[in-house]
Specification:
By secondary structure, the chain is of the alpha/beta class. Helix content is 33%, strand content 24%. The chain is built from ten helices and 14 strands.
C-alpha cells in the first residue's frame, strides 16, 4: 500500500572494512603512509541494504556471519542495528571468521582492496523460505552467494517476487542465479568476462539468449547500458560529480534500483534513481556507509534536467 515501506530481503556476506586514504597505491615491496583511516562495515549486499534503509525501505538481511565470540561480527551487527536493518535472519557460524578487507582509496576515488573470506561461510543454510519471503516485495542477492541462495531465489520467482542480482565478479554460464534472477546488474568488466565477449552491448545480447532476466551493465561515469523489452540497447546517463570515493558505489546503485522496483516503478525510473544515489555516494568518503538519504536523492533529481532516453550506439 502507498506510504508503507516495502520489505526487501538482502542476501549476502557482511564484511568488516579497514579503509586507508593514500596518495597512490604503493609499489610492490614498498611502504606508504595513509592520510586517513576508517573502520566501517561493508560487503556488496550490506552496502546495498544500508542504501535501501536510508532511502526508505524496510530491509531484512540473511546470510552467514562469523562466530559469536569474535569482534568483527559484533562490530558489524551494531552498525546494522543503527541503520534499522533486521538482522534476525543472519546465521552465526561457529569457529568461522567474519570477512575482513583492507582498502586503499586514491584521491581520484579509485579503490584497491584485498579481502579474506573464510571457506566455512559457504556451508551456511539459510532460514526457511516461508519465513524469509513473508511480505517480501523484492530480493537483492550477491552473485557470489549462488551456492546457498539459488533455491530461495527460485522459490521467490515462483511467488512473483523480483530477484535482483548484483554482479561484481564473472559468473559461470551454468550459475543457477543466471536464470533464477529477474534482474541482473553487471559491471562492464564482469559482463564481458561472463559472456566471453569484449564489448558491453554484444555481451548483454549474448546473455539475453541464456536468461529471461532484465540485463544491464554499469560503466561508471559512462552510465549504464541495458536491453529494453524489445531487445534494443539503451543508455541511462551517469550524473557528473566530483568523485572522492567510489567504494560501494555499485552496491548503492543496486540497492536504490531494487528499492524503486519494490515501490512499483519500472526499470527506466529505477535506473535513473539508482544513478543519482550512486553519484551522491561518490562525492563523500565512507564506502557504503556514505549512502545518501532519500531527501538528498529527490532534491538532487529535482535539480536535473529530465533527459530523453538514449538508444545506445552500436558498440
Amino acid at each position: 500500500m502507498a506510504g508503507i515501506a516495502p520489505r526487501i530481503l538482502c542476501i549476502g556476506i557482511p564484511v568488516r572494512d579497514l579503509t586507508f586514504r593514500v596518495e597512490a597505491v604503493p609499489a610492490r615491496g614498498s611502504k606508504a603512509n595513509a592520510t586517513h583511516l576508517a573502520e566501517i562495515c561493508g560487503g556488496n549486499a550490506l552496502n546495498a541494504a544500508i542504501a535501501m534503509a536510508r532511502l526508505g525501505g524496510h530491509v531484512a538481511f540473511a546470510g552467514p556471519m562469523g562466530d559469536a565470540r569474535e569482534t568483527s561480527s559484533g562490530f558489524i551487527l551494531e552498525r546494522m542495528a543503527q541503520e534499522g536493518i533486521d538482522t534476525s535472519h543472519i546465521v552465526r557460524m561457529p569457529d568461522v571468521t567474519t570477512p575482513v578487507s583492507a582498502i586503499m582509496i586514491e584521491p581520484s576515488g579509485e579503490r584497491t582492496l584485498t579481502i579474506y573470506r573464510d571457506a566455512g561461510l559457504w556451508s551456511v543454510e539459510l532460514p526457511d523460505a516461508d519465513v524469509l519471503l513473508a511480505d517480501c516485495r523484492a530480493i537483492l542477492v550477491e552473485s557470489r552467494c549462488a551456492a546457498f541462495a539459488t533455491s530461495l531465489c527460485t522459490e521467490a520467482r515462483q511467488r512473483g517476487i523480483p530477484v535482483v542480482v548484483g554482479v561484481d565478479r564473472a559468473m559461470s554460464l551454468q550459475d543457477g542465479l543466471l536464470t533464477a534472477a529477474s534482474h541482473l546488474l553487471f559491471a562492464s568488466e564482469q559482463v564481458q568476462e561472463t559472456a566471453g565477449i569484449a564489448d558491453d552491448g554484444e555481451a548483454l545480447r549474448h546473455l539475453a539468449r541464456l536468461t529471461p532476466a532484465f540485463l544491464a551493465a554499469t560503466r561508471g561515469p559512462l552510465g549504464t547500458i541495458w536491453l529494453n523489452e524489445t531487445g534494443e540497447l539503451e543508455q541511462t546517463p551517469a550524473f557528473p560529480v566530483q568523485a572522492v570515493d567510489t567504494l560501494g558505489a555499485g552496491d548503492v546503485f543496486h540497492g536504490a534500483f531494487t528499492l524503486r522496483l519494490a515501490e512499483g516503478q519500472g526499470v527506466r525510473e529505477a535506473l535513473r534513481f539508482a544513478a543519482a544515489a550512486a553519484a551522491l555516494k561518490c562525492t563523500r568518503h565512507g564506502g557504503g556507509m556514505a549512502a545518501p538519504q532519500r531527501i538528498e536523492v529527490e532534491e538532487f533529481l529535482s535539480g536535473q534536467r529530465v533527459a530523453t532516453p538514449d538508444r545506445a550506439p552500436t558498440l
